[in-house]
Amino acid sequence: MPELPEVETVIRGISSSMLGQTINKCELSLKKLRYPKTRNFKKIILSTKVISISRRAKYILINLSNNKTIIIHLGMSGRIILTSNNKNSKFKHTHMSLYFKNNLIAKFIDPRRFGCILLFDTKAISKNRLFIHLGLEPLSKQFNPNYLERSCQNKKASIKSVIMNQSIVVGIGNIYASESLFRSGINPKRKAFNITYEQCVQLVKNIKFVLNRAIKLGGSSINDYSMVDGMLGYFQNELKVYEREGKNCSKKTCNGRILRIVIAQRSTYYCSQCQKN
Ligand SMILES: [Zn+2]
Question: How much distance in Å is there from the Cα of 175 to the middle of ligand 1?
């Protein structure tokens, strides 16, 4: 499943080609996605220009010159492929094709159909029901140790559940939660109210580090995820605990082994020795 770094990678990949381009034509498939498509979608976006492409949580926001925004969620298996009129190859499971004046074609492909394509007024997005409950962006300045400490107060849930809670901070999926807890030496089962300020400092720092590192390396591409141009990401070579059950801890000074437990129905990996706190 594409996580925040993969979505950010897709946005960076498509932005340079799509910015400033005018939509000439749009094709939509009749297949159902997670939410019903907006009525008159094709008509509303026709002849508009892409003025910016941004991200909120794991949503891709394609902002158009008519103050509308195309919202795409990649779901479990979504991808965006850029191609051109000259080599308009057919791709299975294409749900939307945007044809631009300069011959560029952007295709949204999603075999498992957990993704979505919607159209909202740009100004009203933050108040939309999909967005109103979303917490802070993890790479924003507002997501800092003070905020995390406040968010942990009085919470009996595990620290891992708190950093994966989308109403507190968005886009920290299972891989990145496990990896940042490992780097911080924090046991994922630790109750949130027991976390110290110093641990919040470490955790915030490491969450930002792993996300930025994964973005730099183009997403981690576990489970057949591929980047916009089909290249695979390389962050998976840097995973220290995720899917490393039974292996020795990668910290030189540690003799521990990587264990797998289940927290909130998700596999959680951590070191038996250096994540005792
Ligand atoms: Zn260890």
Answer: 17
Evaluated on CA atoms 78, 83, 85, 87, the torsion sign reads negative
- What residues form DSSP beta bridges with 105? 83, 99
Mean pLDDT in the chain? Answer: 90
Q: What is the pLDDT of residues 18-65, one digit of tens each?
A: 999 999 999 998 888 888 878 899 999 999 999 999 999 999 999 999
Cα–Cα distance measured from residue 6 to residue 1, given in angstroms and rounded to the nearest whole number = 9
The Cβ-side half-sphere exposure at 276, using a 13 Å CA radius, reads 6
Q: For residue 138, what are the CA distances in angstroms to 134, 171, 179?
A: 11, 7, 15
| Residue in the structure block whose two tokens are 């641990």 | 199
Largest alpha-carbon pair distance within the chain? 62
Q: Do 107 and 192 lie in a common domain?
A: no
Catalytic-role residue among 55, 56, 58, 160: 58
Are residues 266 and 149 part of one domain? Answer: yes
Tokens of 142: 């507002």
Residue that is written with structure tokens 């499943």 in the block = 1
- Looking at the structure, tell me whether residues 76 and 170 fall in a common domain: no
Ligand 1 (ion): residues with CB under 5 Å are 249, 251, 254, 256, 271, 273-274
For the entire predicted model, the pTM comes to 0.89
Q: Is residue 276 part of a domain?
A: no
Residues in the chain where the model's pLDDT stays below 50: 222-232
Q: How far, CA to CA in Å, does 140 sit from each of 53, 58, 104, 170, 207?
A: 17, 15, 32, 11, 11
> Are 29 and 81 in a shared domain?
yes
33, 121: one domain: yes
CA distance 112 to 109: 9
3-class state of residue 22 by DSSP: strand
What is the extent of the structural domain holding 208?
A: 145-271
Indicate whether 205 belongs to any domain: yes
